[in-house]
Every structure is written in C-alpha cells, then in structure tokens.
Amino acid sequence: MTPTNIHIIGAGVAGLTTALLLSRDSRYRVVVSAKHMPGDYDTEYASPWAGANYMPVSRNGTDASKWDEATWPLLEELAHNHPEAGVHFQGQQSMKRDQSLRAASTNKSSECEIYTRRKDAQSATAAWFADLLSLSPWFKDIVPNFRVLPKEDLTRDIEYATAFTSVCINTAIYLPWLLSQCVKNGVKFRRATFQHIREAVNATDAEHRANVIVNCTGLGAAVLGGVADETVVPARGQIVLVRNETGGRMLNFSGTDDGDDEACYIMGRALGGGTVIGGSYQKGNWNGQVDMDLANRILERAARAFPALTGGTREAKNFDIIRHGVGLRPVREGGARVELERLSDDGVWVVHNYGHGGAGYQSSYGCALAAVKLVDEITVLRARL
Ligand SMILES: Cc1cc2nc3c(=O)[nH]c(=O)nc-3n(C[C@H](O)[C@H](O)[C@H](O)COP(=O)(O)OP(=O)(O)OC[C@H]3O[C@@H](n4cnc5c(N)ncnc54)[C@H](O)[C@@H]3O)c2cc1C
Ligand SMILES: *[C@@H]1O[C@H](CO)[C@@H](O)[C@H](O)[C@H]1NC(C)=O
Ligand SMILES: *[C@@H]1O[C@H](CO)[C@@H](O)[C@H](O)[C@H]1NC(C)=O
Ligand SMILES: *[C@@H]1O[C@H](CO)[C@@H](O)[C@H](O)[C@H]1NC(C)=O
Ligand SMILES: *[C@@H]1O[C@H](CO)[C@@H](O)[C@H](O)[C@H]1NC(C)=O
Ligand SMILES: *[C@@H]1O[C@H](CO)[C@@H](O)[C@H](O)[C@H]1NC(C)=O
C-alpha cells in the first residue's frame, strides 16, 4: 500500500506529539513544517514558555477532561522511565525544612499543592476553576496520592488545600526531545510560514503531495487564511525563570490580591532547569513585551507565598533571574478543536488540533491520540476510494 503523506503545520507541543504518534505507524510518511521550531523563543510560540505542569483545570465530563485523563499515564511513564525527556515528579529532591520557612502549608511530603485562599473561596475565579480547586475533583483517582491537606498545617489565610503527585515538564529539554524522537522515526522537519492552509498541500514536493494536513498552529489559527478562526484568542502569560530552587515542590494559589488576571504559581524544572514563577492570564492581550511592574509583583508574591524559595527572607529583590518571558496561550472559546474537515477546493483532508489554551501539555497525548484516530479514519476511507 502506498503510504499516506501527512503534512503537519506547527512544531509546538501539539504538532510534535501528533507527529511522534503518527510516526510509529508505517502507513504514514510525516513532514512537519513550522515558522517556529524547538529552540526558538517568540511570544507567538507558546510551547517554550509553559511551566509546564499537569494540573487539570478541565471540567468533569468534557472532552478536555477526557484528553487530560488520557495524557496522565504517558507523562507518568516518561517521568518513571525516560529522565532524558525532562519530565520529572515533583517532590523528589529533599530539602531541609524548618518551621520558620512555612509556605502556606508545612506539609512535609507534598509534591503538587493547590491552595484555595479564604478570600477566593466564593469568587468567580474559584467557580471557574472549580474542578482544580475541588476537594474531590474528577482526577483524584487518576493522579497518585491525591489528598486533602490537614487544616492544622495551613496558614490562616488558606481556607483549604489539596496535594497530589504530579510532574513538571522542562520545556527546554522536552520539545527538543520530542523532535529527536520524531527524527529517529523518519519524520522530516522544515522551516516554512504559510499564508493559507492551501499552500501546505504541495509544499513538500510534487510527488509527496499531502494527503492529509494536520493543523497544529496554536494561536496562528487565529490569522491563518482559509481557517481564520475568530474564536481563538491569546491569554497572555508572563513568567520569570530563576536559579533559586523550590526543593521539589510545586504550588499554585486560587488567586492574588493584584487582580483577577494575575496568578501565583511556582514549579521546579528537571535537570537544572531552574524554577518557573508565574504569572498572569490576560485574555485578549497580544503584548509580547515584558511588563517589569508585573514581573516585580510576580516575584513579590512568590517570595511571600513560599519563604523557603528565598531562604526565609521573603525578599524578592535577591532572586537570581535567568530570564523574563511572555507567552500567549492559544485559547479557543468552547475548547480545543480536534476535528476533521475536507477542503472544498481540492478534497484534501485537514485534521485540526489547535486551541489548547493553558493546557497544551497536560492534554497533549489525549489530543494527539484523538487526532491520530481521525487520520486513521481518513486512511481507511481513502483506501476504499
Ligand atoms: C506562561 C504559560 C504557562 C503555561 N503553563 C502550562 C502548563 O503548566 N501546563 C500546560 O499543559 N500548558 C501550559 N501552557 C499552555 C501551553 O504552553 C500551550 O497550550 C501549548 O504550548 C500550545 O501548543 P501548540 O503546539 O498548540 O502551539 P504553539 O506552541 O504556539 O505552536 C504553534 C506552532 O505553529 C506554527 N505556526 C503557526 N502558524 C503558522 C503558519 N501560518 N505557518 C507555519 N507555521 C505556523 C508555529 O510556528 C509553531 O511551531 C502555558 C502557556 C503559557 C504561555
Ligand atoms: C464526573 O461526572 C461523572 C458523570 O459524567 C460522574 O459520575 C462523577 O461523579 C463526576 N465526578 C465528580 C468528581 O464530580
Ligand atoms: C498542487 O499541485 C497539483 C499538481 O501539480 C495541482 O493540480 C494543484 O492545483 C496544486 N494545488 C495547490 C493548492 O496549489
Ligand atoms: C488551522 O485552523 C485555523 C483555524 O480554523 C485556520 O485559521 C488555519 O488556516 C488552519 N491552518 C491550516 C494549515 O489548516
Ligand atoms: C493555577 O490555578 C489557577 C486557578 O486558581 C489556574 O488558572 C492556573 O491555570 C493554574 N496554574 C498552573 C500553572 O497550573
Ligand atoms: C537566589 O539564589 C542566589 C544564589 O544563586 C542567592 O544569592 C539569592 O540570595 C537567592 N535569592 C533569594 C531571593 O533567595
């Protein structure tokens, strides 16, 4: 049987994960084209800026929760068996803990901790993230060691808190790792910027004309001709990457005192990757420049919320900064689009896999598996024609 030529547009976590899964099937010949490749840092390219962690914010019973659910076992497997991928469990390093260095909790063995502040317990944000903040979320039996932290361990401003075993993905290692795994399986990579999805049909070469195009363009989907999807909008995320270490803890709070579009989260990356401190979630904001006032608020909040990060000083001014960053999360109203479409002009099939918002890593395998299923369906269909 002649192989199906698959042309994937986009080399973020969505495109790379989809390419990796497709490349394991000998029926498929896969080419990835993108404007941005692993190693690039550009606001338009969301993937390098993510923390990234597995903290589901999807609502129970939605497609998004199914994708998150399907992703966990694969991330867990990488953390157990492939340390070279840069995915690691939080809580593995031991750290001298001292009561004077209390974070929001003194819990000694927590890995990934989620704190709901008293003042957020009834807020709109808390309602929106109800599943993540819940004492009994849908994912409690998916991730290991889910538990509610004892009330007596919490500081006074915290209403309740949960913890579970989770991973942090060092995106500076993981994206090149995904690319390498693809190359090992024969996937070709090329730099290209498309004005219109139609250009992707003949882009590789005449004899390898694409039979299927896979659209993993993230926020690019908002402007790409032929698909201009107006429901895709940016949610600006600003972060600071520092050398100071968390001792293997990952924390996230239900809110901040600095407005609804700011966040407070902290996670340590594997293999000397430093600590990512966030952040913001500024919907509709395309500004790719670092806002230094926001950067200062981010560091101040982290220093207060997690004293151990600053050696107990709670002083933000001494952080050892690797870099500031701004990424635009590709948010799609109604959730990510994993869907089949047939181009009317020349009958080429398009499988869409874009619009993952703030969850592109934690849903990556679930979405890629769903995209592969659609490619498989087209392949069976084409064989019958
Ligand atoms: C600060 C921040 C923190 C985050 N934290 C997390 C987290 O903890 N956990 C988590 O799961 N997610 C997190 N995310 C979200 C995650 O980063 C995104 O959901 C994910 O990176 C989206 O991946 P993608 O491959 O769809 O898009 P992108 O990474 O943006 O890649 C898009 C690709 O398409 C290419 N492209 C677009 N248009 C064209 C065109 N016309 N022609 C050619 N190529 C094109 C681009 O060049 C690029 O290669 C975070 C995001 C940010 C910004
Ligand atoms: C999630 O939804 C399912 C039904 O779709 C239900 O059975 C289950 O109890 C829900 N879980 C939680 C934690 O709400
Ligand atoms: C692709 O190439 C074929 C054969 O050369 C041609 O018929 C077709 O119009 C081209 N399609 C596009 C979208 O350029
Ligand atoms: C991808 O989908 C988006 C949104 O529908 C669209 O704007 C873009 O043209 C599509 N790109 C490709 C390569 O299909
Ligand atoms: C932290 O929790 C907030 C909700 O309180 C959520 O918006 C955000 O995505 C979470 N951040 C991370 C990095 O998981
Ligand atoms: C961060 O680490 C550096 C050493 O790398 C140290 O000098 C500095 O005081 C630390 N900053 C804080 C805020 O703890």
TrEMBL record:
Lineage: superkingdom = Eukaryota
Q: What are the FAD dependent oxidoreductase domain coordinates in residue numbering?
A: 7-372
Give me the residues that bind D-dopa, please.
Answer: T217, Y265, R329, G358
Q: What class of enzyme is it?
A: oxidoreductase
Q: What is its EC number?
A: 1.4.3.3
Pfam families associated with the record: DAO (PF01266)
**Cofactor(s) essential for the protein:** FAD
Residues spanning the membrane: none
GO cellular component, as recorded? cytoplasm
Q: Does the keyword Phosphoprotein apply?
A: no
This entry's Gene Ontology molecular function terms read: D-amino-acid oxidase activity; FAD binding
Keyword list (alphabetical) reads: FAD, Flavoprotein, Oxidoreductase
- Which one GO biological process term can you cite for this protein? D-amino acid catabolic process
Give the signal sequence positions. none
For this protein, the record's PANTHER family field holds: D-AMINO ACID OXIDASE (PTHR11530), D-AMINO ACID OXIDASE (AFU_ORTHOLOGUE AFUA_5G11290) (PTHR11530:SF16)
- Similarity-based family: Belongs to the DAMOX/DASOX family.
Q: What is this protein called?
A: D-amino acid oxidase
